[in-house]
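Now produce a polypeptide, keeping tokens residue-aligned:
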Amino acid sequence: MSSIYVLLPPTPVTAQAEFEYLVSSDGQTVSVHAQAVPALLPLPAGAGSEVVAIAPAAALSWHQVTLPRGAGPRSPRLRAVLEGLLEERLLDDPDQLHFAVQPQAAAEAPAWVVACDRAWLRSALQVLEMAGRPAARVVPEFAPEGEPALYALDDPDLPQLAYAGADGVLLLPLASSSLALLPPDLPAATPVVAEPAVASLAEQVLQRPPQLQPTAARLLAAARTRWDLAQFEFASSGRARTMKKLSTGWADLLRAPQWRPARWAAAVLVAAQLLGLNAWAWKERSALAAKREAARTVLTDTFPQVRAVVDAPVQMDREVAALRQVTGGMSSRDLEAQLGALAAAAPPGRAATALEFNGSELRVRGLAASEAEARPVLQALRSQGYAGTLQGDTLVVRAEGQP
């Protein structure tokens, strides 16, 4: 699996624009980090792979609102509700903006809403789609979630300072004058993360050494957010979204490091099951072999003349039949025994018109002409240990267990 993560340019996007992108096989490590025009971007490969578009912080604005009752994430009037709630906070006409609501937003509770230029987002996604790299998700570069942190970002024009935490997202110039705009209750121990090119400037401005983090690693971490800006008109169908989540989730389960203990547990469980099944099968085979050996012993002890045992039950039946013939005994397969049973089961006043015996099966005509007439006869035969069937007007009788 190789997923592609593409950082969208904050300026209007064309097919000739270069996209910064990275490739990851597990969502945790970066294998490729480069720039290319849309047509030359790598293609995702493998089950669960996807193209993830990352919206830059400079193109987004964040607002916290309280959704009214009945205006949940699936409400058909959510878009109109957001326009009404944000109309006085926005610099642009709401009709020109795209909105996305935080995951699992609830009515009558504070919720974060992100806004961006609708035409810009549409053109960026269309360029990717026309290049054969449609985005499965659109995630923000920074989102209002998790513990607060400061990020020093390298920018060709002006280095920037980003703040992200559960209480909001800010994007400011990386300068001492920007410190006054940060949240006043920001803890002194707030982590500082800097890209290598601006690490020294970040230490000078913030008065503490930052933790180095390459741009690719930061973007890959941003893609693990639960946020997805592909909502309203940009949302894919419910079925496609569900299948994509299942595919991505399955790929994460197979490859992501955080699922390694679960994978080991599943492997141990499967191995234990296989060992248990093999032990159970060995026990059953041993029991079956013991029963076969017991049958052979009974046969050879009862009939010592039998030297080679091939099928003990069949040979036992054959030897018993031969012994019966020698002693003049009668078995349930003999004609006399079957006639006696049939006489006891036949309805009074009915006489057989034809008899046929082939050595083990008796065929009789005249006792029953229909299923209704044959049913009591068959039940009486069954009570005596015989099976019977009606074939046309012929009643077929054989000893039970006889093929």
Q: What stands out?
A: The two ends are 59 Å apart (CA to CA).
